[in-house]
């Protein structure tokens, strides 16, 4: 807490991602929810300082603070989603996506593993072999968000 700027310095947002999330946040076509293992205040600080994003507190879920597993947060978000809306869960940990695949009630979520962050080449290969999971790079991810913000359907 004494050196927030020092802590924030190495926590970068990938090029194009912050801008794309900001487009989604400002679009009537999309709602952005952050489900993270980081403390909410740190996640909020990274998004605010690094990308100019201000995600409302009621749409930022910190597993560290609540102790609620990401799978359970997704169940609740799904219950409150607009009927027929597309629900996409983006994650950088393959083990989390595998838990989502096994959890009843999450079958209608599209699952995306980003090819950066906390995953290995072997995990990406495993994800590519799973029909529920799409692996994307940073450019594809940013385009996916921009398309969603503009109301374009994803193929």
Sheet/helix structural class:
alpha/beta
Give the overall shape, derived from the CA principal axes.
Answer: globular
Strand order of the largest sheet: 3-4-5
Order of helices and strands: HHEHEHHEHEHEH
Specify the helix fraction band.
40-55%
Task: Explain what the structure shows.
- With 155 residues, this protein is an alpha/beta fold.
- The protein contains eight helices and five strands; from the N terminus they run ααβαβααβαβαβα.
- The strands form two sheets. A three-stranded parallel β-sheet has the order 3-4-5. A two-stranded parallel ribbon has the order 1-2.
- It is globular, with a radius of gyration of 15 Å.
- The termini are far apart.
Quick summary of this structure?
With 155 residues, this protein is α/β, with parallel strands linked by helices.
Using brief descriptors, characterize the structure shown.
155 residues; alpha/beta; three-stranded parallel beta sheet; two-stranded parallel ribbon; 14% strand
List the helices and strands and how they pair.
Layout: H1 4-8, H2 17-25, E1 34-36, H3 40-51, E2 60-62, H4 63-66, H5 70-80, E3 87-91, H6 94-102, E4 109-114, H7 121-128, E5 133-136, H8 138-149
Parallel strand pairs: 1-2, 3-4, 4-5
Helix pairs in contact: 2-8
